[in-house]
């Protein structure tokens, strides 16, 4: 029993509380971490995402060594690197003579399948441990989902609040007297709003070395590598959390749905990248937000809204992913099949709102939820873009993107490709919505109030064309009768003009002129 156990830690599992690390024998076991091309190229990741993960992995490995663990860290450029996680496990097993291999369940189906295959190829047992950073296990989600005809977030979320005692009074009632304060969280931001600057972190020698590596090895990667200001250690991520709780959270609710030119972050937390990679724990983030409300630092609509995103949406989305994969990946309920236009990659479009969202993405590997859902996602929905192409884009371009969280958000929430499993109504909106919730339209080549003609905002005719195309599916939707009665009131002549305008937009999109 003196042979070591090999403990594999993936790039998004940088959490010392995970069983794979917490149960390690420091003197005997070996922690394996590997930078590999297979993970770095399975989609065209943003270069900031690769740099963030490699730097965070290297810092984590160093901290583990300082804490007395034996760490086998394989760098991307190591001569012997097989460039796949499975290859690195096999190599380590052969070289170290381990008695078993332990890994935490990966966040993506494809990798779990690979580990199942690896199990058969290994001469020693492979244990896949549950990822207990999440607050709802697969079993708990399946128990909740079993027998329900609809899987709505709100029911799940209330259960989670009760189960974890978050924002719940001793008598079981919700703090503030309501479970959900969403209706208070749709304020339009003043056009001259300047959100408080965010902290950024100085690049140390490890990060500078990683940036050089990424610059050399991923010359065709998506996005801008520098300036690079991500937190790359738990200590830094905790500082980002402190800053959010102290200075930003109190406005989180009010302007949650707002969009302002030149303000990529507004009052969003920017914490998804750190939570998803393991530098922060979701429960600690929720508890800090709750404490801020109890201490009078932030109002209930902000704190409840924020906790709902993490305790509710994040856990629910993960539950949906694992319950419905791998079939979920093939869903295309609206038969969408148009190719992704080039402007998703370079931001070259006359639509100011889309250009702004894509340029934020190129610069920061980030855009906030409403930009993802109501600008790029809404456009993809209305234009009938191929869900697999849209999925590959979202999975690549954000620093927080892993399939378990990205896929249901894209296929389910944004594209309605799952036929309404996740959302009872498509998040489809015309230029009117974008005009109301942002100040983008004032600098746009198009006019949000115009439906046909040269200056017509593409979101308008595409919206009505979408509504018309999918009449069979949505006309009976209890939340959409008003939409269909408005369309019908336009009459055949106007409807034909709108359809013709939509055809012009599709044509312009194909020619790269939209
Ligand atoms: P905040 O607005 O500050 O929210 C707080 C936290 O709540 C986030 O950090 C995140 O952990 C959680 N959260 C909020 N909304 C969601 C949600 N819908 N699903 C899961 N968690 C949520 N989120 C990802 O983490 N990775 C993705 O790859 C991803 N892809 C998306 C793709 C599309 C098409 C859409 C519409 C949403 C996607 N989201 C994704 C959800 C959400 O947009 C991001 O979590 C959020 O923008 C991250 O920024 P933030 O940390 O500033 O979030
Ligand atoms: C995203 C990513 C990248 C770019 N590179 C690595 C890597 O080199 N080594 C690694 O262990 N993990 C990496 N990851 C994260 C994995 O892709 C992630 O663990 C899976 O997608 C499952 O969520
Ligand atoms: Fe976007 Fe239309 Fe407004 Fe232009 S006019 S910014 S395309 S919503």
Structural account:
With 514 residues, this protein is mainly α. The chain has 3 domains: 5-129, HUPs (Rossmann fold, 3-Layer(aba) Sandwich); 138-201 and 233-324, Serine Threonine Protein Phosphatase 5, Tetratricopeptide repeat (Alpha Horseshoe); 343-511, DNA Cyclobutane Dipyrimidine Photolyase, subunit A, domain 3, CATH 1.10.579.10. The protein has helices at 19-22, 37-41, 47-66, 85-96, 109-121, 138-145, 153-164, 205-217, 234-252, 272-277, 282-294, 300-324, 343-346, 352-364, 369-382, 387-397, 403-414, 431-437, 458-469, 471-474, 481-489, 491-511; strands at 5-8, 30-34, 70-74, 100-104, 126-129. α7 crosses α12 (300-324). Iron/sulfur cluster is lined by residues 351-353, 431, 434-435, 440-441, 444, 446-448, 457-459.
Fold blueprint:
Elements: E1 5-8, H1 19-22, E2 30-34, H2 37-41, H3 47-66, E3 70-74, H4 85-96, E4 100-104, H5 109-121, E5 126-129, H6 138-145, H7 153-164, H8 205-217, H9 234-252, H10 272-277, H11 282-294, H12 300-324, H13 343-346, H14 352-364, H15 369-382, H16 387-397, H17 403-414, H18 431-437, H19 458-469, H20 471-474, H21 481-489, H22 491-511
Helix pairs in contact: 3-8, 7-12, 9-11, 9-12, 11-12, 12-17, 14-15, 15-17, 16-17, 19-22
Bound molecules: flavin-adenine dinucleotide, ligand DLZ and iron/sulfur cluster.
Residues 268-272, 275-276, 306, 309-310, 313-314, 317, 368-369, 372-373, 377, 394, 398, 400-401, 405-406, 409-410, 413-414 line the site of flavin-adenine dinucleotide.
């Amino acid at each position: 029993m003196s042979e070591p156990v090999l403990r594999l830690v993936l790039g998004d599992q940088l959490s010392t509380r995970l069983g794979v690390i917490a149960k390690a024998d420091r003197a005997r076991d070996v922690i394996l971490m590997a930078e590999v091309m297979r993970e770095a190229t399975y989609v065209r990741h943003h270069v900031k995402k690769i740099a963030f993960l490699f730097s965070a992995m290297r810092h984590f490995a160093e901290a583990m060594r300082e804490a007395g663990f034996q760490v086998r860290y394989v760098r991307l450029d190591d001569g012997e690197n097989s460039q796949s996680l499975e290859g690195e496990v096999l190599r380590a097993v052969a070289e170290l003579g381990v008695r078993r291999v332990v890994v935490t369940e990966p966040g993506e189906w494809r990798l779990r399948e690979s580990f199942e295959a690896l199990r058969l190829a290994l001469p020693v047992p492979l244990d896949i441990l549950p990822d207990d950073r999440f607050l709802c296990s697969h079993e708990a989600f399946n128990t909740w989902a079993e027998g329900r005809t609809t899987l709505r977030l709100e029911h799940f979320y209330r259960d989670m609040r009760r189960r974890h005692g978050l924002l719940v009074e001793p008598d079981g009632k919700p703090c503030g007297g309501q479970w959900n304060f969403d209706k208070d969280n749709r304020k339009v931001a003043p056009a001259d709003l300047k959100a408080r600057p965010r902290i950024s972190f100085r690049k140390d020698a490890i990060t500078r070395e990683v940036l050089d590596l990424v610059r050399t090895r991923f010359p065709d990667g998506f996005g801008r590598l520098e300036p690079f200001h991500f937190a790359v250690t738990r200590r830094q991520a905790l500082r980002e959390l402190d800053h959010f709780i102290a200075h930003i959270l109190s406005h989180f609710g009010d302007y949650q749905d707002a969009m302002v030119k030149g303000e990529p972050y507004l009052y969003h937390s920017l914490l998804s990248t750190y939570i998803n990679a393991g530098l922060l724990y979701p429960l600690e983030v929720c508890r800090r937000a709750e404490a801020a409300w109890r201490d009078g630092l932030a109002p209930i609509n902000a704190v409840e809204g924020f906790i709902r995103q993490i305790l509710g949406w994040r856990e629910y989305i993960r539950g949906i992913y694992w319950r419905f994969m791998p079939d979920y990946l093939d869903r295309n309920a609206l038969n969408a099949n148009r190719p992704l236009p080039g402007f998703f990659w370079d931001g070259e479009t006359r639509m100011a709102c889309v250009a702004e969202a894509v340029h934020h993405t190129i610069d920061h590997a980030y855009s906030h939820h409403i930009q993802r859902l109501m600008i790029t996602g809404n456009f993809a929905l209305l234009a009938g873009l191929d869900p697999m192409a849209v999925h590959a884009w979202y999975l690549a371009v954000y620093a927080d993107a892993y399939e378990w969280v990205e896929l249901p958000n894209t296929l389910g929430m944004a594209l309605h490709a799952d036929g309404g499993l996740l959302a009872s109504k498509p998040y489809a909106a015309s230029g009117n919505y974008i005009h109301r919730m942002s100040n983008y339209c004032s600098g746009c080549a198009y006019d949000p109030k115009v439906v046909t003609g040269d200056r017509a905002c593409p979101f308008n005719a595409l919206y009505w064309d979408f509504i018309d195309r999918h009449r069979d599916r949505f006309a009976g939707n209890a939340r959409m009768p008003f939409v269909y009665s408005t369309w019908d009131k336009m009459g055949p002549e106007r409807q034909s003009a709108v359809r013709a305008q939509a055809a012009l937009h599709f044509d312009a999109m194909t020619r790269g002129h939209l």
